[in-house]
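Quick note —
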Amino acid sequence: MGTKGTKANNTKANNTKANNTKANKKGAASSATDEGGTVAARPPLLEDVHHPLAPGVKYRRILLKLSGEALMGKTSYGIDPAILAQIADEIIDVHSLGVDIALVLGGGNIFRGIAASSSGMDRASADYMGMLATLINSLALQDALEARGSKTRVMSAIEIQRMAEPYIRRRAIRHLEKGRLVIFGMGTGNPFFTTDTAASLRAMEIGADIVMKATRVDGVYDKDPNKHKDARMYRRLSYLDVLNRDLAVMDSTAISLCRDNKLPILVFNMTKPGNIRRVVLGEPLGTLVLEERRTPRGPQMAGTGGGGSDGQ
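Predicted structure written out below.
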């Protein structure tokens, strides 16, 4: 009995020691308090940080549409690493203003479905190949952004789980709310629809304030400014103006979607550094397409100011 009693007492002593150790650890943890006696908050993870909206920002959430050709730079095919780095730096700069940014990229720098179908390829097959090109560009931009410390998610309209998350609307919105950059790849996931239509659709799904289409020219012109020196740029247009005049803004399906949901479109020049930040801060660059009944502003002579010019 004495031996059993000794063992029991030792067991109790050991349990008491363990409880004291736990209490000491708990006490040490609770000692991490501020002077007011409240427990200090855990420092947030980098991916949980969402910058407050900076003063003067006009748009809280944007959908930025980049053409595949924008990634080529001066090359004739593929991706120019210097241009990719410049685009990533500009996106991060705007994101630091507290703006939620989602992106849709084209794939024309790698493969154009419409061009292939005009050469005899089945249109659906050609479009699916073009979707793969958009995913390649999306992964390249994701790599450039994450190399600079930005948390980024690529979401694919067609499931390809080893490379990207499947597109789920609520998950995409949650990523944005957590301060992550979101890139939508694979277009709409359907042939016969352009990445412009995908940009309009995704913008409406995530509740974006505007679709910003980045191009190589200052805005929307009455004719090709690269071929005609007397081309005139519009400052504002209505959706109907774009459709009736067959202006090269987006395809008619994308324009109609934006019109039906009153989603503004801004066409601007991205080749000039700092233009994304300028338009987000409300500078009157490029051409704004929205619902209005008044006569459109412009056209304006090419090269006479406006439309993203650094000198205006």
